[in-house]
Amino acid sequence: MRLMTKLLGAALISLNAINAWAVDAISLEKQYSVAAKQPASVARGEKFFASKHGKEWSCASCHGVPPTKDGKHASTDKSISPLAPAFNVKRFTDEAKVNKWFKRNCNDVLGRECTSLEKADVMAYLNSLK
């Protein structure tokens, strides 16, 4: 019985550790807003997403407007699943992947990494899509 109690306790601790690493689109928006030291804006995020910023592409070039359906990579034609979290539950659930793709895509769109505020605004826009 004591062994069973210890095993159950260890399992609960493991589940809590896994949940501590879990991420979602809302928590990412908040995290980026805190880092930016100002609240995110849906309107700024929508404008940023649809606009070109000195490079050939915008976010919408591949993800579409609104990004609620499958998109297509602008140069490879590879299919891209919907970006808006309400239309793709797998989006923004792995922080390492989110960071990887923000870095890569911001470079394609801006020629640099996105700021925390730009990320917060884009996340606010994507979270607003229902």
Structural notes for this entry:
The chain is mainly α. It has a single domain, classed as Cytochrome Bc1 Complex, Chain D, domain 2 (Orthogonal Bundle), CATH 1.10.760.10. The chain is 57% helix and 3% strand. The chain has a two-stranded antiparallel sheet with strand order 1-2. α2 runs antiparallel to α6 and α3 packs across α6. The protein is globular and about 65 Å long. About 8% of the residues have low confidence.
In short:
By secondary structure, the chain is mainly alpha-helical. The chain has helices at residues 2-21, 25-36, 42-50, 60-63, 95-110, 116-128; strands at 71-72, 79-80. The chain is 57% helix and 3% strand.
**CATH architecture type:** Orthogonal Bundle
CATH superfamily: Cytochrome c-like domain
The helix/strand series, from N terminus to C terminus, equals HHHHEEHH
- Overall pLDDT, averaged? 88
* Approximate shape: globular
Which blocks of ≥5 consecutive residues have pLDDT under 50? Answer: 10-20
> Number of helical segments?
6
* Class by SSE composition: mainly alpha
Question: How many domains make up the coordinates?
Answer: 1
Helix percent reads 55-70%
CATH topology: Cytochrome Bc1 Complex, Chain D, domain 2
Per CATH, the class reads Mainly Alpha
Largest beta sheet, briefly?
Answer: 2 strands, antiparallel
How much of the sequence is in beta strands? under 5%
Q: Compute the CA-based radius of gyration.
A: 18 Å
Q: If strands are numbered along the chain, what order do they take across the biggest sheet?
A: 1-2
SS elements, strand count? 2
